[in-house]
Amino acid sequence: MISIFDLEKLSGLLKDFYEISHIRITVFDENLTELVSYPERVAPYCAVIRGTSKGFDACMACDRQACEKAAKKHSTYIYRCHAGLTEAVTPLYVGDVLVGYILFGHVFSYPSHEEGWAVVEQRCADLRVNMRMLKDTIFSAALIEENYIRSAAQILHAVASYLILERMATLKEDLLAARLDAYLSAHYSEKIKAPMIAEYLGIGKTQLYELSKQLYGCGIAERIRALRMEKAKALLREQKKLTLSEIAALCGYSDYNYFITVFSRETGWSPGDFRKKHSTPSF
Q: N- or C-end of the chain: fewer Cβ atoms within 10 A?
């Protein structure tokens, strides 16, 4: 997890949302790990559906797909879940970094119980759930109008903005930045790639790229190349006894010709010309 959530404040905020809307609300981190919800228990019909492995897996897959769509849209996404219930999800961004999701769900939004049950029954037919028990819970559910859901979704979006504004979710960017800088400083001359760095930091490749853009204004590959070029320039200026091939190797380039190509492209000078122009004079 690349963020820190104030769970105590979040719990209070979710409770307030529920008191107004009577709709269950949940916060996930960026990996879709549930952090806090109010109420803690899911709706009775959801409990029946999740009571089987197929039903549980279908719910998890549905949540993931919905969150991915919301993240791409950068806005609240209202949808019918795999079982025919209505949900809404809003992505949580700190700056440009996705840190989690806030979701309300399991709303029975149909003109009548009969019409809704026809949809739910069809969608849950292959989930091996107790259909009699599921029907009982469906017919006990409150009927929620579409206008009410749209209004609740607007409030959900406002709640998401508020919890970011009030720093209930913040990046661990100071710690991550220090770890990333230390790692790159120690290993930039080695054969390192983004997946290795992401694994070391415990974040995804996309999140690593976003963090790099925030910290350095460029991607990881560009940052590594910049560090290598600075090292090469320092060696060319200060270490006259080193050959260009040795300098290339010290900067992480096993291919001497490729080093010359990259250095010339990045600085506008060939390594030899740079050394002649910028060498530290000896006395």
A: C
